[in-house]
């Protein structure tokens, strides 16, 4: 059994999906009409969530994961353990590449995601990710 399977067995995924679905109703999507909701549980048991917020200047649109990470930080920080995002019909969807990077930063390689192809760790959905250790390694190399 993998880490993803182990964690998936103890997480209340129905609760996370329900919270993500609730968040789609809060989305601000006047342009795409594609609501997205996200929910996660932290390693200390808190549930955090977010919805997408569009903008007429498309480049400043915020994905649901951005709101989720903002709530994580605003409520004390910590590490994400399990994550899901859904569309307006409640279907599980895969986070975009930008959001995978956000999730890596706050969940690391062992964060488990509910995906369209089953439970996967961040290491599986973002292999060879760039993260804080890359910056540390570079900085240490500058002082050698």
Automatic annotation (TrEMBL):
Its EC number is 3.5.4.5. One of its GO terms (biological process) is pyrimidine-containing compound metabolic process. Keywords: Hydrolase, Metal-binding, Zinc. The active site is at residue 65. GO terms for molecular function: cytidine deaminase activity; zinc ion binding. Signal peptide: none annotated. This enzyme scavenges exogenous and endogenous cytidine and 2'-deoxycytidine for UMP synthesis. PANTHER family: CYTIDINE DEAMINASE. Belongs to the cytidine and deoxycytidylate deaminase family. This is Cytidine deaminase. It comes from Jonesia denitrificans (strain ATCC 14870 / DSM 20603 / BCRC 15368 / CIP 55.134 / JCM 11481 / NBRC 15587 / NCTC 10816 / Prevot 55134) (Listeria denitrificans). The lineage of its organism: Bacteria, Bacillati, Actinomycetota, Actinomycetes, Micrococcales.
